Each structure stands twice: as C-alpha cells, then as structure tokens.
Amino acid sequence: MSVSTTTSPSLRIALAPAGAAGFDPGVPVLAGETEEHLFAGLAFEGTAGALQVYSNRDWRVGAAAVPLDAGLEAATGQVYDDLLAAVGDRRLVRIWNYVPAINAHGPEGLENYRAFCRGRSLAFERAFGSDFKAHLPAASAVGCQHDRLTVVFAASRHPARHVENPLQVPAYDYPSDYGPRSPSFARATRVELAGRTAVFISGTSAVRGHATIAPESTLAQLDCTVENLRELSLACGLGPDLAARRGLRRHFKIYLRHASDLAAVQAALRDRLIRPGDEVSYVLSDICRAALNIEIEATLLPRG
User: Which of 73, 111, 231, 295 is flagged as catalytic?
Assistant: First the structure.
C-alpha cells in the first residue's frame, strides 16, 4: 500500500439501525461515502459462533472480525464454518472479506490470500461436498490494515442465480498457478425479490481468462475492469450499463492500491460508470493479486 492515511476515515459497515456501532474492516476511505449501509430495517437475530447476525423480511446478514491467533487459514475455516451454519435455510448471495496483509507471505511461505482461499474453499467443501462450486456466491477479498479478518455475508430467502463472465475463467476453476485451492466465488449473483431484482457484482478487476492485464498501468487496468463490468451487466440481464436507468439503488466500492491514483480514476469513472445519485466509496486497499492496482464492486438493490 503506497501511502499512509492516518487522516483518512475508516470505512464503517453498518448492519444495525442508525446510531449503533458498526464494523470497521480497516480500509481507509479516500473519497466518497464513509458508511456502508446496504440493508435497511435489519433487527438483531443472534450470534453464530463469532458472527453477529441480523435479518429482515428479505435478508439475513452477518459479520465477524476474528483474530488470527491460530493462523489465517484456520481462522478463515472457522469463521466460514460459522457463516455457512448461520445462513441456515436461506441462499447465500454475497460475501465481503477483508484480509490482513493480503499479499504478504505467512510462516509457511504461502501468500496470505492463498492461505485464505484454501481455508475458505475447504469450508465450502465441508458444507456442500464435492459439488460445492454450484453454491458459491458473489464475493470480494481485499487487503485491510487491521490484524483481524473481517467477513460480512448476505443471504436471501428468495431465488438466486450465480453468474459468470464469458471473458473470464470462473475463479473456482483457476489452474494451480494461483494457489493450492482456487478462489471460491462467482462473478455475480442475481436475486429475484418477488417482482424486484437485486444484483451483487463481485470484486472485479483487470483479469482476462485467468491472466492479469496491464500490470504496469492503473488506467489500462481500469479500462479492462470496466469492460468486465459491462459483460457482467449483460450476463445478469441488466443491459450494458449496470441498470443505470432502471431506478435501482446503485452502490459502488472502488478499491485502489495507490492513493495517488484517486484523481485519475475518479475522472475516468465519471465518464464511464458513475452517475449522479450513485453511492460510491473510494477506499485504499491492497488487491488480491500484487500486480493489480484497482478493483470495483457493485451492489444494485431495489429502492424503498
């Protein structure tokens, strides 16, 4: 991470009603919204292991911040076991992961992201068996400045469809070059809410097939990322522009490895992605691959 941001506020993830304490995943906000409050009307439901769980008529949402005393892989496996138990009879549709020192290497020499991926994949396999890939939801995993792993999930009682990008190899089918267990997520998940639609677009970056594009240029990576978002938008049935004219509430998180890229990225996205009324947070975060400088996620929800 290129710049220390002691004066930047940290992103706050709010699950409970306004005014209650939220989760601080350890990512500084460079510009835009400092609070993420995606799901209205949640009421506290209880705990599931380390997770605090909330729900309303459409969603069950939970979050945990867990220490890494037993190591990152073990902590990931345990919190995912708790998470998958907490989902219960709902359909898992989105997971956000904030991983300490994501590109650093652990005691065994394995990159932290790859250790996280192994712990996550094995937890899914324990829960769903050998066909667990069919159950994988949209997700993101980015670096954070805390020493705890923070995980947030959303599940729904409504029908859901997981979606892939035709320009990319599904992450769960990556070759072993990317670690001992492939990343366990779908590129997007679409949920049908009784006549309304919600779409969760995973953290999306400059990957074609399974290769990193333009490692030397953030703006070239941005071009590829926006093209990938367009393909995902089409695959989700939203047209080419992530439902910009369909009245959905659009929330974006733009993760930047280098704070110095902020102004150029903001200017480019004003022309190509962001519209008036969108909720946007630009945050400083390392990306899951050391050669990637930018990642963008989108959450599209019905209003009201």
Answer: 295
Angle formed at CA 212 by CA 206 and CA 213, multiple of 5 degrees: 60
Predicted confidence at residue 83, as pLDDT, reads: 98
Cβ atoms of 274 and 33 closer than 8 Å: no
192 classed as catalytic:
no
- Length of the chain as a residue count: 304
Mean pLDDT across the chain: 95
- How much of the chain exceeds pLDDT 70, in percent? 96
Rounded to 5°, angle at Cα 182 from 59 and 254: 55
**Sequence-distant contacts of 191-196: CB under 8 A, at least 24 apart:** 191/91, 191/93, 191/156, 191/158, 191/159, 191/160, 192/158, 192/159, 192/160, 193/58, 193/156, 193/158, 193/302, 194/158, 196/302
Tens of pLDDT, residues 274-290: 999 999 999 999 999 99
Strand, helix or coil at 172? helix
